[in-house]
Amino acid sequence: MKLSCVTASYVADLLGYAGAIDWGEASQRAAQAPLLSTIDGILERLAPARLDGIELWFPHVWPAKVTPSLASVVRRRLAARGMACCACAGGLPDPAMDPDGCEELFQVTQMLHAPLIAAHLPAAIVPRLGAFCERYGVRLGFENGHERDASEIIAVIREGGPWLGANL
Fold it and tell me: pTM for this one?
């Protein structure tokens, strides 16, 4: 069996409390935190679980701090633990409103050799992401939230083409 963990599970560490999470503040702090020491700390804590992969939350691998060289270092550190980046996780901006921001997140995903972005997204933007998925060779796992049943989820991902699926 292949097991992974999403690094978003560790946002409370940055905020220093165990209460309700302010995801906006957590995202900002994660994006500003040092990349390698943050990843190393998470990997060290996860070592006893002997995971096969990790889903790196986008604020942990924010485009402003991930270079091709640093992405290589992250991949090597994962490989040394027998792990791979199996996905990047988090929201994507609407490519109609922020095409550069959307593209940067796909570029980070590609640099980390992750085959998937797992994202909770507004249904309306999902069809606009298919072209990015195809260009970067990255699949999108739509994390449903407001859909009432499977037929609504299928309707959303059908519009995005073969690169999109559901991440339930």
Answer: 0.88
